[in-house]
Amino acid sequence: MSTIHNLNVNFKGTTFNLEQGLDAEFILMSGKTLLPLPEPGVTYLWESSELVRVHRSQQTIQAKTQFLSFGDERIEIEPLKKYKTVRLLRLSVSTEWLIENNLRDSFAQIKNLYDFVSLPSFYESLDSQLLALVRNTDPSRLNNNLRLKSALFNYLNSYFEVLKSPKVLKNDRLKIEWVVNNYMLQFEQPIPTITELSNQLSMSESKFKYLFKEAFGMPFYQYYQQKRMNEAAEWLKSGELNVTGVSQKLGYSHPIKFIGQFKKLFGVTPLRYAKGKE
Questions:
Q1: 222-276 architecture in CATH?
Q2: CA–CA gap between residue 260 and residue 263 (Å, rounded)
Q3: Do 9 and 33 touch, CB atoms closer than 8 A?
Q4: Which of 27-36, 56-65, 188-197, 242-251 has the lowest mean pLDDT?
């Protein structure tokens, strides 16, 4: 049963345990409702079958069908007057599940849904037969429906695939952060060119260069090279890799090229740097 508690609300719910750390709950509710607070390390993704008014402490009241709740923020929702009841889908996503599925960085960007052009809708993804089932069936009787469970997995796949694409972002700052999060945390693969990145972000090359330098205080390739050399320094300092190993991991065709770039930034060769940290 649902964990929403409000004596003025009639509700019924059922939960699908999709995977460890990933649950979906269907809830039938009416009246103004105070949503439950997520447990630590969990974020709730909410979608309503109809427009609801969302009351948040730091925002004006918004009429919408999709919203998130996380942390200790109190959120109340209220169906528009023309809807006596609405059906809510609540997806509970744990941080551990996001890490295991390499989605933590992508998911972190949607804390403010207003920065996104659009995200997939679960109810709109259903065929007419399944949509009628969800709209007309007591939620407590849905938990054994395999078609509905399959539809939930398909929806989640499409939802997170969209998050991986920067084109859904409408905030330039988030687009630049997306580049850093997706290409400057791992260095084994060559980074795309500025032309390729600009196309991915749907902006001109000149705008990309300007925004990046404004955000990080240096040109794109200089920042990228500095990040690579700092990572190399950490590997050398820990003794995890020798100079040849670091060079190979960074994708250099020959250690000499790596040694030259490293010395340019740190003033010493990688070998001397490693010995100095012993």
A1: Orthogonal Bundle (1.10)
A2: 5
A3: yes
A4: 56-65
CA neighbours closer than 13 Å in the CB half-sphere of residue 198 = 14
% of the chain beyond a pLDDT of 90: 28
Rg (CA), the chain: 24
Burial track 105-135 (b if 16+ CB lie within 10 A, e otherwise): bbbebbeeeeebeebbbbbeebeeebbebbe
Nearest to 274 by CA among 257, 256, 262: 262
Residue 19 has pLDDT above 70, yes or no: yes
The amino acid at 50:
E
Domain topology for 12-164: Jelly Rolls (2.60.120)
**Could you tell me the residue ranges of all domains in the chain?**
12-164, 172-217, 222-276
pLDDT at 43: 87
Cα 150 from chain centre = 22
Q: Is the pLDDT of residue 31 over 70?
A: yes
Q: Tally helices (H) and strands (E) across the chain.
A: 12, 7
Q: Which tens digits make up the pLDDT trace of 91-143?
A: 999 999 988 887 776 676 665 555 555 678 899 899 999 999 888 888 878 87
Q: How far is residue 57's CA from residue 37's CA, in Å, rounded to a whole number?
A: 14
Cα–Cα distance for residue pair 153/10, rounded to 1 Å: 28
Query: What is the structure's pLDDT at 256?
Result: 92
The owner of tokens 């705008």 is 207
Give the dihedral sign, CA 215/218/222/225.
negative
pLDDT digits (tens, 9 = 90+) for 66-77: 888 877 878 888
For tokens 């004596």, the residue is 7
Structure tokens that stand for 168 in this block: 């859904």
DSSP-assigned letter for residue 70: -
CA distances from 62 to 75, 80, 193 (A): 12, 11, 40
